[in-house]
Amino acid sequence: MALWSSMSAHLALLLCFCVLLSRVNGRSRKVSGRSGGASATKGTGRYRHGGKVCAKSERAGAATTEGARSSARASTARAWPRINSRSTTCRLGTPTATARTRRPPRRDPSWRRLASTALARARRAAARARIAVYKAVWGSARGAGAANTASLLAAIDDAIHDGVDVLSLSLTSEENSFGALHAVQKGIAVVYAAENFGPASQVVRNTAPWVITVAASQIDRSFPTMITLGNKQQIVGQSLYYYGKNSTGSSFKPLAFGGLCTADSLNGTDVRGQVVLCASAIASLLAPFPVALENVLNAGGSGLIFAQYTMHIIDATADCGGIACVLVDSTTALQIGKYMVDASSPVAMIELARTITGKEALAPTISVFSSRGPSIEYPEVIKPDIAAPGASILAAMKDAYVFGSGPSMATPHVSVIVALLKALHPNWSPAALKSAIMTAASVTDELDMPILAQGLPRKIADPFDYGAGYINPNRAADPGLIYDIDPNDYNKFFGCSFKKSVRCNATMLPGYHLNLPSISIPDLRQPITVSRTVTNVGEADAVYHAAIESPAGVKMDIEPSVLAFNATNKVITFQVKLSPLWRLQGDYTFGSLTWYSGQKTVRIPIAIRTTIYDFYTDVA
Length: 620
Known about the structure:
Elements: H1 3-6, E1 13-21, E2 23-24, E3 27-28, E4 38-41, E5 46-49, E6 52-55, E7 64-70, H2 94-99, H3 109-118, E8 130-135, E9 138-139, E10 145-146, H4 149-162, E11 166-169, H5 177-185, E12 189-193, E13 212-217, E14 221-222, E15 224-229, E16 234-238, E17 253-257, H6 263-266, E18 275-279, H7 288-298, E19 303-307, E20 324-328, H8 330-342, E21 347-350, E22 356-357, E23 365-366, E24 386-389, E25 393-397, E26 400-404, H9 407-424, H10 430-439, E27 452-453, E28 459-460, H11 463-466, H12 473-476, E29 481-482, H13 489-498, E30 519-524, E31 528-536, E32 542-549, E33 554-559, E34 562-565, E35 571-580, E36 588-597, E37 600-610
GO molecular function: serine-type endopeptidase activity
GO biological process, one term: proteolysis
Region (Disordered): 29-110
């Protein structure tokens, strides 16, 4: 079943996180009219918030905003600058990007400027969604978003009271894990961003086992930008360069070398009206390019060719102050440098970026900035859970459209898929929805090769990069088997970590015994047996066989290795025995367990670390 074409669902957003409302018996739930809330205005097709009326979507069939609230509890005027208002408008952009699902009007200047780089076929994720917006993140004096725990918990509580089905939170706040647990125990799926601290390990955020944590990936779209040298040699870089208001245009201009393009390296060098070749001295992510661009602009340059380690982070090239700009790798920069040495008067021309999609672009790959596991707080849980598109996503920002990257852009993709699954399976629990998404994920790209993870260096992705893999919504609609969890079980396993009033029980089971669609054991010394229970949600009479891929240095045994379901036997428990093959203070190794029946496969990732000593630190 094609999930996208068969579903209608309703989105709700927390500003700056989002909440998804679902249709119930043909009716949509309404955001209640409590103080500070939003309520329906009878007969107008509009919704009222604090005396202000917000129109529903102007396009039939588009996602509609039910209402909006703001929360700034426990906040003082000193804590929150006056630049903040109690308006529910989010000026940071991420929730706006989630909510603004319809095609932008061509009268929008930003749409016209981006037309040459982003035009492609698009389809709405949840065309008949209902959106409720809860503003809990506020701009700071520096322009960054900030929130306190009280405001976020108040917004979550409002969303629970309003009866939403999905919370979409593109933010970081570990303190809210118990608030998210409260939502999950009320039947609400919670989707969080993994954050932007990659590619280092152990930096993933929002790692509570009851939430869905989303990593960011590249999509099958790239923006090749042609550089033509004076000797007619053509070199391809990457850019979002288009003709802007003050664009210098595409024409040959003198080519100069600016070194690192610091203020000092350009001091005394006349680069006015020239294309400047700059090189990054470090394999950094975002900092060198904006600094080099600012210095080239201040020096009067008319173009920028910036060389760096391949990162596939090109959003900054969408607005280069009116000059042509393009990113290249170090090998390409060397070719340009050789031409500059040989030519008496080197020149170069940077053309407009163009777009290629499909199998011509290597995708998906895990973005370099996406935070990696393992989780420090919950090492017995594989995090992130899933990867989704989150790089160079065209999205709404204030009254314009821009390219944005990060797990915060990936999170809404997963949220709307969860909403669609909830509409298709209204009785499924948050754990069942999470299981369907994870067990149906893909671990190969469009060329049927292993998904790669960008980093230093690039490598084959593992569960700490993408969890179960890259999201596959159509397969998730019919997963075959699900790993369900009673919400009260979270208290049994993790009560000590989020309730200070709960006395830790020495006999409490380790977290890897929770019925998650993954297995993570951070300290395997002796053989350990874990149980998992699967529920058949597919054809009543089905037989599944086990296929195991053991982590290196670990022996895996499954009992039983065949699961036979029928109309009366829908739930089966099996055991996985994991035994270390060597005594070693090792690192994590990875494997998987897959149940297959005909064309249907149900896969979970496995991460095991063999140990000898407790709290062993490897700092060499």
